[in-house]
Amino acid sequence: MRFRLDVDGERREIDVERSAAGFAIRIDGAVYRVRTRSTAEFVDVRIGTKRFRVRLQGNEAILEDGVHRLRIEDVSEDRADVVEGRPTETGAVVDVRSSMPGRVVRVAVAVGAHVDRGQTLVVLEAMKMQNEIPSPGDGVVREVAVAEGEIVTADRVVASIELRGSSAS
Amino acid sequence: MFRRLLIANRGEIAIRVARTAKEMGIRCIGVYSEADRNALHRAAMDETVAIGGPLPADSYLNIAHVLRAAQDSRADAIHPGYGFLSENPTFAQGCADAGFVFIGPPPDAMALSGDKIAARRSMAEIGVPVTAGVDRPLQSVDEARAVAADLGYPVIFKATAGGGGIGMSRVDRPADLASAFESAQSVALANFGNPDLFLEKYLLRARHVEVQVLLDSRDGVGFVERECSVQRRHQKLVEETPSPAVGRTLRARLIDTAVRALRALRYRNAGTVEFLLHDGRFTFNEVNARLQVEHPITEMVTGVDLVRQQIRIAAGDGPEVSQSELTRHGHAIECRVNAEDPIRNFLPSPGRVVGYREPTGPGVRVDSGVAGSSVVPPYYDPLIAKLVVQGRDRRQAIERIRRCVDAYEIRGVYTNLPFHRALLQTRAFVRGDLWTTMVADLRIAARLRSRGPWQERIAAIAAALVASGRVARGPTFPLQRPSVAKWAVAGRPQPFAGGGHAVSPRRRW
């Protein structure tokens, strides 16, 4: 099976062969022998002695280090066409998650507020670095799930946004 | 000599100070915040005192709490380490007022070093070359514009009260000046309570070299220079001594200048004078009025325990070495090990260390604040350990530290060790061709993504996709265009690209 996988904006050709013991995954000429164990919530992946716990949600894979954005193209039947998903649909509610563990230093929006794509929703701080979490699209804040001063884990939902059509172009 | 020393810090530096103090027969009193209840530095002390909540302002930065701990534990001296209260003149004065010996410079010398404009003026007065710039706080954007036009671009805004690279803002074109001025001002106000800025000419491809000095009322000793050009966003990552760019004549001038500079500030105890080296000429950059993170490389090549000298000077015993007795053996390099993920734009990676093994061997020293099962809290600096090696020469030191980086095992939190591995392989570093923006210019962190650890993560994600049956059915992802998270040093509002964001549609596949 072959597919293209775009992780955080970097595209790789992936070649997967199933075997009795698991998978052989080939990326850029390197081969990783991988075993997996799936549950309803996550997939445990073992590569050599390293273990990764991967949770898949929407177009994201959540590893212990945080959230990676994914995009897949199917090339297994040489269909090179890129499948463009509709970025956002009016009325869709998206959860916005924290990218790192840290402390909420500022909640910049309130429930019911209109936000633009890229507008800062929440500011996190960890180890003297601040990370602004932006809105994924134009819309209305449906829920703010954190409070200032709160400590959050890496993939915690910090807010939910109901998207409005303008960014779905 | 002191009998009871309070070490007002945490992590590796608290442990490092305690090691020397114990060797001197001094009882060590540690302090800890609620987040550090199980921290490794507590175990290095004879006694520890709780000083408040996890936030630095409630504990390690809280002057009243620290002084109270010193009183309660009947300390006679306080070592501040680096960071936190180490360069706070109010704290140094508070120690003196409460009857504790502060192990560091006198408060007025500290205040003078911390005021960058005053320090520049003092240097110019005694004939130390300073980087071209203005020696007064800028009143307006127009004034800044006029000064910048005189100096010629690029220029750099610096906060008068600044430090640690915070509040510095490089400007390459006149069009960017106004916004840089305003944002640097607000950062300076937020971080230092003082919005004053001044301007300096920004030197391209400059090296950062610095001279460690020990001073008491009689003697002054200047050590062989350290080169700290490998930086990211004005934060040092790798330091070495001696500098590959400094010969005997220049070295003598640097050392002489540094000792003279600190004398002019009426400085006592250990301090460091930073210079920029540019086209074979040096200019004064700033004074660091504390023990520095990178002090071990100087200790490795000279055999002098700098903390021991600090304590002796504070106790009135004077340093054990004089300038003429100072010898030097080989070359030392330090890599700062930070709990940051270099593959994800140095995203902070607090968490629990689940596996830990340090490299060892001849010429190897690890100053670590963590061990197996330590928790790295999100509240403090990402520095968790310092890997220091010494070799017969620079080449051997590089070979040795490469071996150690490979052998260093830290699991549970991501560290910048993969970055160090890549850096130590770059041709520029191996040649000794170093400059302060080399990490960005050579895209060292970006290139990491094309190998090892990043690929492994992609493989893990790919495997999870296949194992969960999501790929077999074809490309069924609900796709979204990414928006980029904005990053900033605490208090700094300017955005920069990178970081992950987090969005997931609440619907089914």
Q: What can you tell me about this protein's structure?
A:
The complex is a heterodimer of chains A (169) and B (509). With 169 residues, chain A is mostly beta strands. In chain A, 0% of the residues lie in helices and 58% in strands. Chain A has no helices and 16 strands. In chain A, the strands form 3 sheets. Chain A has an 8-stranded antiparallel barrel. The two termini of chain A are 32 Å apart. By secondary structure, chain B is of the alpha+beta class. Chain B has 3 domains: 4-103, Rossmann fold, CATH 3.40.50.20; 133-201, ATP-grasp fold, A domain (Dna Ligase, domain 1), CATH 3.30.1490; 207-448, D-amino Acid Aminotransferase, Chain A, domain 1. Helix content of chain B is 33%, strand content 23%. Chain B is built from 17 helices and 25 strands. In chain B, α4 (89-97) packs antiparallel against α5 (107-114) and α12 runs antiparallel to α13 (417-425). The longest helix of chain B is centred in the middle third of the chain and has 17 residues, at 248-264. Classes of the chains: A mainly beta (169), B alpha+beta (509).
SSE topology sketch:
The complex is a heterodimer of chains A (169) and B (509).
Chain A: E1 2-7, E2 10-19, E3 22-27, E4 30-38, E5 43-47, E6 50-57, E7 60-63, E8 66-74, E9 93-97, E10 102-107, E11 114-115, E12 120-126, E13 129-134, E14 139-144, E15 151-152, E16 157-163
Chain B: E1 4-7, H1 11-23, E2 27-32, H2 40-43, E3 47-50, H3 63-72, E4 77-79, H4 89-97, E5 101-102, H5 107-114, H6 116-125, H7 141-151, E6 155-159, E7 169-171, H8 177-192, E8 197-201, E9 207-215, E10 220-222, E11 226-232, E12 235-241, H9 248-264, E13 269-278, E14 281-288, H10 295-302, H11 306-315, E15 331-338, E16 340-341, E17 347-348, E18 351-352, E19 355-357, E20 364-368, E21 375-376, E22 383-391, H12 394-407, E23 409-411, H13 417-425, H14 427-431, H15 438-441, H16 444-448, H17 452-467, E24 486-489, E25 503-505
Parallel strand pairs in B: 1-2, 1-4, 2-3, 4-5
Antiparallel strand pairs in B: 6-7, 6-8, 9-10, 9-11, 9-13, 11-12, 12-15, 13-14, 15-22, 16-17, 18-21, 19-23, 20-22
Helix pairs in contact in B: 4-5, 12-13
